[in-house]
Specification:
By secondary structure, the protein is an alpha/beta fold. Helices cover 27% and strands 31% of the residues.
C-alpha cells in the first residue's frame, strides 16, 4: 500500500503542449501510465488537471482536490470533488478507497505533496519532447527524494524515486 505520484515532462522541462500532458508523453510512458492505474484504488488530481486532461472515464474513483466546486468532468460517475487540503484529501481517499493512491496531478500538486513527505514515491518520465507551454525543474523535484533509480527505454528516461 503506497501513495505514488506520476508525472511526465519533456527533456526541456515542459509538462504540457496544447494544454495537455499527452503532448509531452511518449508511447512507452503512456503504456506505463496506464499500467499504474490498474493497481490503484483511487486517483488524486488537482482542479487544473481536471479541467485540462481527459478524465471522463477512469478505471477507479478520481478525487479532484479543488477550491472551485465547478465539476469539469460531470460525465465521470466515479469523479468526486473535494474542497479540502491535499493532506486531508489523501487521508480521506485512503479511508474511503484503500491504500494504493495514484497522484496524477501536475507539478505543483506533486511538489507540494513531496515537500511534506505525503507521497511514498514518484514515477517520473522524461521524454524527448520540447517546446511545450510550461516548464518545470524536474531535477529539483527528484532532489527531494533519498533514493532515485533511472532506466532508459526507447529514448524515454524513467525515474523511480522514494523518500
Amino acid at each position: 500500500m503506497a501513495t505514488i505520484a506520476t508525472l511526465v515532462v519533456g527533456i526541456d522541462g515542459s509538462f504540457s503542449r496544447d494544454g495537455r500532458s499527452a503532448g509531452v508523453s511518449s508511447p512507452e510512458d503512456r503504456k506505463r501510465f496506464l499500467a499504474r492505474r490498474k493497481s490503484a484504488d483511487c486517483i488524486l488530481i488537482g482542479g487544473k488537471t481536471a479541467r485540462t486532461e481527459p478524465y471522463h472515464r477512469t478505471p477507479v474513483p478520481v478525487v479532484v482536490v479543488s477550491r472551485s466546486m465547478i465539476n469539469a468532468i460531470p460525465s465521470n460517475r466515479l469523479a468526486l470533488w473535494w474542497n479540502t487540503t491535499p493532506e486531508k484529501a489523501l487521508l480521506r481517499a485512503k479511508k474511503s478507497f484503500g491504500g494504493n493512491i495514484l497522484v496524477e496531478g501536475g507539478p505543483e500538486l506533486v511538489t507540494y505533496l513531496a515537500e511534506r513527505a505525503l507521497i511514498d514515491g514518484l514515477e517520473l518520465s522524461v521524454t524527448q519532447a520540447t517546446g511545450g507551454e510550461e516548464r518545470f525543474d524536474h531535477e529539483a523535484l527528484l532532489a527531494k527524494f533519498s533514493k532515485v533509480t533511472q532506466e532508459v527505454v526507447a529514448e524515454t528516461i524513467f525515474y523511480s524515486a522514494t523518500l
